[in-house]
């Protein structure tokens, strides 16, 4: 029996780092930290759903908790005079308070800009979801997206897979478009992967995106 491994998780310690960085000796503190991390991620993923968010990284120091949000639209999150960030911090404090957290004023939120969205699987998948919600033909969306991503000079290969009642068909199926190479077995190959879901009027469409940007020999 074969096992499917997430390309990001398979490369942790080789190319990728952990998205939550902290250490706890006390089991009680460990449970609380995990609970807080899950609450932070669930809240941000829900409230910032259409803001081109790629990843949420959490770092814990002795007296502070730092949350870094990577997005292609930093201006929408920051807002005028930083009001957007302040609102996010206030909302996160309320969410953490429900988990029994004692973070209080020690919470910090940073925003990182993603300059090339074509190299990012999460952002590409979000663009596909937006196109499908506008009722564009799924084959055209797949082909146009693959061509757009492959046009980036840093991208060596791209693969997009869709499954479900494609085009409103009665029987679910899977279709795929690929350009270039996707060396999943090479651990030094930098491959960005995501699995997302588009909720349409005739059902859910599963979307998977792989983007290969070359072999890397320096550890992150």
What does this entry look like structurally?
The protein is α/β, with parallel strands linked by helices. It has 2 domains: about 110 residues, K homology (KH) domain (GMP Synthetase, Chain A, domain 3, 2-Layer Sandwich), CATH 3.30.300.20; about 100 residues, 2-Layer Sandwich (Ribosomal protein S3 C-terminal domain), CATH 3.30.1140.32. The protein is built from 6 helices and 8 strands. The strands form 2 sheets. It has a 4-stranded mixed β-sheet with strand order 1-2-3-4. A hairpin with a 2-residue loop joins strand 7 and strand 8. The longest helix is centred in the first third of the chain and has 21 residues. It is globular.
What is the first-to-last residue Cα distance? 32 Å
Q: What is the CATH topology descriptor of the largest domain?
A: GMP Synthetase, Chain A, domain 3
Q: What's the average pLDDT?
A: 88
Would you list the SSEs in sequence order as H and E?
HEHEEHHEHHEEEE
* CATH architectural group of the largest domain: 2-Layer Sandwich
Biggest sheet, spatial arrangement of strands:
1-2-3-4
Overall shape: it is globular
């Amino acid at each position: 029996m074969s096992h499917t491994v997430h390309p990001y998780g398979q490369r942790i310690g080789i190319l990728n780092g952990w998205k939550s960085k902290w250490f706890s000796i006390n089991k009680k503190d460990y449970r609380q930290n995990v609970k807080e991390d899950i609450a932070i991620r669930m809240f941000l993923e829900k409230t910032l759903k259409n803001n081109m968010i790629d990843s949420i990284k959490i770092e814990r120091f002795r007296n502070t908790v730092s949350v870094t949000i990577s997005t292609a639209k930093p201006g929408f999150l920051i807002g005028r005079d930083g009001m957007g960030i302040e609102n996010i911090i206030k909302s996160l404090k309320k969410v953490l308070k429900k988990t029994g957290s004692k973070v209080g004023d020690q919470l910090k939120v940073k925003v990182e800009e993603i300059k090339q969205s074509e190299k990012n699987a999460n952002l590409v998948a979000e663009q596909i979801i937006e196109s499908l919600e506008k009722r564009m033909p799924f084959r055209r969306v797949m082909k146009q997206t693959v061509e757009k991503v492959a046009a980036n000079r840093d991208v060596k290969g791209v693969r997009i897979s869709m499954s479900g009642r494609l085009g409103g068909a009665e029987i679910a199926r899977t279709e795929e478009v690929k350009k270039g190479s996707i060396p999943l077995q090479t651990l030094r190959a930098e491959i960005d992967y995501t699995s997302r879901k588009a909720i349409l009027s005739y059902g859910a469409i599963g979307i998977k995106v792989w983007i290969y940007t070359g072999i890397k020999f320096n550890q992150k």
